[in-house]
Every structure is written in C-alpha cells, then in structure tokens.
Write a structure and sequence with these properties.
Layout lengths: L3 E5 L5 H8 L3 E5 L4 H11 L20 E5 L21 H12 L3 E7 L9 H12 L3 E8 L10 E8 L36 E3 L12 E5 L13 H7 L4 E4 L17 E4 L2 E4 L2 H7 L12 H10 L3 H16 L10
Parallel strand pairs: 1-2, 1-3, 3-4, 9-10
Antiparallel strand pairs: 4-6, 5-6, 7-8, 8-9, 10-11
Helix pairs in contact: 1-8
The structure holds S-adenosylmethionine (SAM).
S-adenosylmethionine (SAM) binds next to α1.
Length: about 325
C-alpha cells in the first residue's frame, strides 16, 4: 500500500529518501533553514514550507506517518503532570498539536544519542507521556548507523509511536554486516593529501569496540593554555578535527558543528581528507544526490541529517509491524 507521510524539520530530506525508497509518498514538508530548503527542492522538486510554529495544523493533509528529527529543548514544567499542555512553547508542541489534529497511525522521532539524559531525563519522559496521552503506544531505542551498512559510528535515539497499540520491536530491524571506510571511498579524483611532517602516526593502532581505528593526529599547534604539565601533546591528539582514522575501520560521527570538514583518513600509506561525496556516502546518500551551496553549509547539513539506510530499515519494519498488521481495524479512523 502507498502510505502517506509528512516530513517535519526536514533538513535535506534524509527521512524522506528512506521512506520514499519503501514506496511511501510525501504530502508535506517543513524546514526553516534556507540552504536546506533549497537543497531539498533541488532533490525532491518541492520547496518545504518554513517555520513550523507558523503553520496551522489544519492546513496539513491527512497522512499515515509523521516524521520529525527535531531540535532538543527542555520543558519548563513546574512539576505538575499536565502532558500535552506542558509542551507549549517548544518545537515538540508543534509535533504534538499536528498529531492531535491529524491522528496519523505512526509517528517517528529522531534525536541525539544522549537524548534520554537531556534535562535529567525529563525531556524524554514528557515526550513519551504526551504521546501516550494522544493515544500512541511508544517504544524507543538508540540505533547505530554502522549496523545498517554504512561505516559510520553514529548513534541516534529513535522513538516510534503507533495508534493501534503495537509497541515497535526494534530487535526485528534488519541489520547489515559491517563495512569499512575503504569500501565507500572514491577511486580516483583530486584528493587533499597531508604532507609527511604534517602528521604523526601512532604505533600499534588498535581497533576500538566501535570499529574505529585511531591511528594518528595532525601536527597542529599545541594548545598549552590550561593544560597540565607533560600532557600538552594530548590536546592535539584528543581534539577531534586533528585525529586521523585508518580507512580499514569505521568513521566517527559526521558532526554538524564541523563546518570545515576536517575528517582525515589513513589510506594506502598516506593521509588525506575525506571528499564531500565521501561524507555524503557515509550518511548513505546516493552519488546522484545534488549538492548545492557553500562547503560550510553542506558540511553543516550533512552532519545534521539522518542515515538513509537506517531510515529504510525502520520504514520497512513500520510497514510490517504496524501499518500492514492484521489488527488494522483497531486504528482510530
Ligand atoms: C536535526 S535536523 C533534521 C535533519 C533531517 N532529518 C535531515 O535528514 O536532514 C533539525 C532541523 O530542524 C530545522 N528547524 C529548526 N527549527 C525549525 C522550525 N521552527 N521550523 C522548521 N524547521 C526547523 C533545522 O533547521 C534543522 O534542519
């Protein structure tokens, strides 16, 4: 069946790619950032509407699935459990008011790994309580992109809610065998290599449980201010943009704050920067995905996005476990 979805906080459309790949159809999208909106339009032929707080829920078409990778904000609750009304003034409230008005069968929310600890656990609790109050059975899990066929250690909290009482079973998601950075590298092209002398390789690098192989660091100026004696060298080793990873392992998280794209890998005896296309491949975007705008904007957008094959795995199970389930009649009409 051709299920309909809406794409809130749409970014460059990571969620949309994954659900469209499973044959679902997007009816509405919203995104406030102009560069993301333009890139979305370039790729999906539709300019998302802007600020969700300014959009009347009754203007949105009825849909089966609401998707949202929304920014994390604390709720200012005095202590009394008021649920839905308590979320007013946050971007989650805009999700909740659309759920209330439109009653989609499924809601999928995405957030950072440590979402469960945000504001001492209150944020997640209020969100789950509000979804329950709106009639959704909920479950949540932290998923890692590296389990879904991309060589990136990227952990994200996923919440799935269903109106028919099904608690989404994350254990049934189809996992893929591990891939290495080397498997997604461009074969030829003009690569940005570091000169010998610009980096130091460590002896006996070890594969970490995450799959990362930290193997060296760039010889940047050492920040000595505020560091303890004899530990100065660690400041350059531990500063993420200075770290070099072996291409036979997994890549660390592509971060939205890293607008210079300082991702360095050790491959075939040399150290080079990942290309922009390789960064998009680490997020599971196809090579035909159109990239527009400045490099800084692109690095920011890709770091903010969601890993497409992980979304596809979720979409597939949502269809099986919730939407195609026998007890469809239990859905609120
Ligand atoms: C974590 S990103 C989600 C990215 C998306 N899942 C993707 O695949 O690219 C959150 C997005 O929410 C957008 N946003 C923040 N406030 C918004 C608002 N008031 N209305 C619409 N979008 C908003 C941000 O610009 C950002 O792109």
């Amino acid at each position: 069946m051709n299920y309909k979805f809406i794409d809130l906080f749409a970014g460059i459309g990571g969620f949309r790619q994954g659900f469209e790949a499973l044959g679902c159809e997007c009816l509405f999208s919203s995104e406030i950032d102009i560069h993301a909106r333009q890139m979305y339009c370039e790729n999906f032929g539709e300019l998302p509407l802007g600020d969700i707080t300014q959009i009347d829920e009754n203007q949105i078409s009825n849909h089966d699935i609401l998707l949202a990778g929304f920014p994390c904000q604390p709720f200012s609750i005095a202590g009394e459990k008021k649920g839905f009304e308590d979320t007013r003034g946050t971007l989650f409230f805009d999700i909740a008011r659309i759920l209330k008005a439109k009653e989609p069968k499924v809601v999928v929310l995405e957030n950072v790994k440590h979402f469960k600890n945000h504001d001492g656990g209150k944020t997640l609790r209020v969100i789950l309580d509000t979804l329950n109050e709106l009639g959704y059975a909920t479950n949540w899990e932290v998923l890692n992109a590296k389990d879904f066929g991309v060589p990136q250690n990227r952990e994200r909290t996923i919440i799935v809610g269903s109106l028919n009482g099904v608690k989404f079973d994350f254990n049934k998601l189809e996992k893929k065998s591990p891939v290495r950075i080397v498997d997604i590298l461009e074969k030829d092209g003009k690569f940005d290599y570091l000169e010998e002398g610009e980096y130091t390789l460590i002896e006996n690098p070890k594969r970490q449980p995450s799959g990362l192989i930290f193997c060296g660091y760039r010889n940047k100026n050492i920040r000595t201010k505020g560091t303890r004696e004899n530990t100065q060298h660690l400041s350059r080793v531990h500063k993420q943009p200075n770290r070099i990873y072996d291409a036979n392992g997994t890549h660390p998280t592509i971060a939205s704050q890293e607008s210079a794209g300082r991702y360095f890998i050790y491959h075939e005896g040399r150290v080079r920067k990942l290309t922009m296309m390789e960064c998009f491949r680490l997020m599971g975007f196809g090579d035909d995905f159109k990239l527009i705008g400045s490099k800084a904007n692109l690095y920011n957008r890709i770091g903010n996005s969601i890993v497409v094959p992980m979304v596809e795995a979720i979409a597939k199970e949502i269809k099986v476990q919730i939407l195609n389930a026998q007890n469809k009649k239990e859905f609120i009409p």
